[in-house]
Amino acid sequence: xxxxxxxxxxxxxxxxxxxxxxxxxxxxxxxxxxxxxxxxxxxxxxxxxxxxxxxxxxxxxxxxxxxxxxxxxxxxxxxxxxxxxxxxxxxxxxxxxxxxxxxxxxxxxxxxxxxxxxxxxxxxxxxxxxxxxxxxxxxxxxxxxxxxxxxxxxxxxxxxxxxxxxxxxxxxxxxxxxxxxxxxxxxxxxxxxxxxxxxxxxxxxxxxxxxxxxxxxxxxxxxxxxxxxxxxxxxxxxxxxxxxxxxxxxxxxxxxxxxxxxxxxxxxxxxxxxxxxxxxxxxxxxxxxxxxxxxxxxxxxxxxxxxxxxxxxxxxxxxxxxxxx
Length: 325
Description:
The chain is of the alpha/beta class. It has 15 helices and five strands. It has helices spanning about 10-20, 40-50, 65-70, 90-100, 120-130, 150-155, 170-175, 180-190, 195-205, 205-225, 225-235, 245-265, 275-280, 290-305, 310-325, and strands at about 30, 75-80, 110-115, 140-145, 160. The protein has a five-stranded parallel sheet with strand order 2-3-4-1-5, sandwiched between helices. It is elongated and about 75 Å long. The model has no long low-confidence stretch (mean pLDDT about 90). It comes from Paenibacillus montanisoli. It is an enzyme of class 2 (transferase). Its EC number is 2.7.7.7.
């Protein structure tokens, strides 16, 4: 995978590709951003490009160094991750010993530290000495969810590379490229934070079935209270789906939101795109404000469930409120 092929993160890409084309590669980088924003994949793509002998702003994928990297046969790449809950001083000392050996054919050595904020104070101070006296062919890439949690002295000696939460459209495109079916993916990217969480949600038992139940419930909730209640009883509370009431409500919010998207002419934004005909016939049965109310009622039902109100009772009250408008 090259830098250009990764989803989103235009600012991070610009910083790293400029370093590659200008030859002004820093001795240390701090990749900071939320889970699922692709920091590790970007670090690996950047490392591959740094080893690449093809020149340019990305890995060529064809030179010997690129092929070695792709086959996991790059001895000058070192990965450090927490041992238990933290990165300990012995791990940093071991890294320093490995980096002290003579280079092989590669022109530089690279080390990637995952969850850098978990370094113990001793480990961080040991790494700091290493950063203060950089060996020119060594590049450090520190990864963290929270750059502010890393020692200020380490932050000041690294180039900050910000990572943003991936936009749903970027995640949707990546999932489509991976062959993930469009319908569950459109829902997952609105509910989960980051690609890994999306994949986990889609693979979860009952996710596709829950989506179908929400479509039926969403339709029945508008005019057929009895049918909606029977549907909830039969397909949710008498099955394993009843164990995930919050997921049900999250999907129901997206259903009502689709009505607003349709009214605004944003058909491409519809989550339940396979229900376009039905949505087209019913989206104007309420005003945009009316649909916002339905979303608010659904979110309130979620709050009540978290306050230990029976999910069945909370859902019944939600359906009554939606019926009454």
